[in-house]
Amino acid sequence: MSAATATATATGPGEVSSRLGWALADSWTMTRRELAHWARQPVAVLVNLVFPVMLLLMFTYLVGGGRGVDGDPTEFLVPGMLALTMAFGLESTMLAVTQDLGKGVIDRFRSMPMAPGAVLVGRSVADMLQSTAALAVMTGVGYAVGWRWHHGAAAALGAFGLLLLLRFAMLWVGILLAMVAGRPEMVAAVQILVWPVGFLSNVFAAPASMPGWLGAVVEWNPMSATATAVRELFGNPGGATGSWAAEHAGLLAVLWPVAIIAVFFPLAVAKFARLDR
Questions:
Q1: How many CB atoms lie under 10 A from the CB of residue 128?
Q2: CA 213 – CA 191 distance, rounded (Å)
Q3: CB atoms near residue 12 (< 10 Å)
Q4: 57-96, pLDDT tens digit by residue?
Q5: Please, what sign has the CA dihedral across residues 48, 141, 159, 212?
Q6: Among 261, 243, 198, 247, which residue's Cα sits nearest to residue 224?
């Protein structure tokens, strides 16, 4: 048998199917491990769910939001807070990864006969499940404070899809930064950088109410693109300025996360592969 034939036989459909099943089984095991942590640490899960709710209530009733918007400010604020919730909360993911690194858990997993990417897949699936739960809680609270969507179920599902796409992109940024930081105490330093990016957006105020140069920067923020796009899908006021970024927010709400994933996903995978070197 030639070398080419042997290679083709070794990587035939049956072998590929077996490897895929192995990878899926290992990834599900890692996901179950992350979910088990929820049951053992319910307070941490609760804090992650309650914190964005507190921000929403604070900006709705105390600080105020929706500056520069015609219409109900609550309907402007809630979609923005949904986008902010998807971008924030990376600390829990980063903390979990750095803790596993510090305790040598990931090194032990890597020494076991398991699919190489199962640890990252399990972490990402658990994070997306938690993000979906946070999105559901925030949607319920938004309804309680008077927010509504007006364009039907299909448009609403599209909006939620864009929000989760943003979260998936930010997830890989968090995983990479966690592996670069390496220690739980470094997570606080990263948090300091995340907050300005989150607030330098149109979550709380329309870019038209800002100085010209600042409004232009804000409109090109990936979070602003998602916030504007979901406002349009929900039928909520968006404080549109007529700029290219505002008029094509739906396109940017897809392109920005895809670009972030294209950059940070391979970097995270490569960094994970080099952890023992």
A1: 15
A2: 25
A3: 11
A4: 888 877 666 565 666 788 888 999 999 988 876 777 788 8
A5: negative
A6: 198
Bridge partners, 205 (sequence order)? 67
Q: How many Å apart are CA 192 and CA 233, to the nearest integer? A: 31
Taking the C-alpha atoms of residue 90 and residue 268, their distance in angstroms, rounded to an integer, is: 15
What number of other Cβ atoms are within 10 A of residue 30's Cβ?
Answer: 22
Q: Tokens at residue 215, please?
A: 């409004």
- CA-to-CA dists, residue 248 to 85, 152, 221, 251, 254, angstroms: 22, 21, 13, 5, 10
Question: Residue 266 corresponds to which tokens in the numbers above?
Answer: 């391979």
Which two tokens mark 257?
């996360």
Amino acid 245 reads A
CA distances from 270 to 11, 28, 219, 275 (A): 23, 22, 32, 9
Tokens coding 133: 């739960």
Bridge partner residues of 67 (DSSP): 205
- pLDDT tens digits, residue range 107-156? 777 777 777 678 888 888 888 998 999 999 999 999 999 899 998 899 99
Kindly tell me the sign of the dihedral angle through the C-alpha atoms of 140, 65, 208, 218. Answer: negative
* CA dist., res. 221 & res. 197, Å (int): 8
Q: How many residues does the chain have?
A: 277
**Four-CA torsion 45, 105, 177, 202, nearest 10 degrees:** -10
**Tokens 């968006």 label which residue?**
238
Helix (H) or strand (E) holding 44: helix 42-58
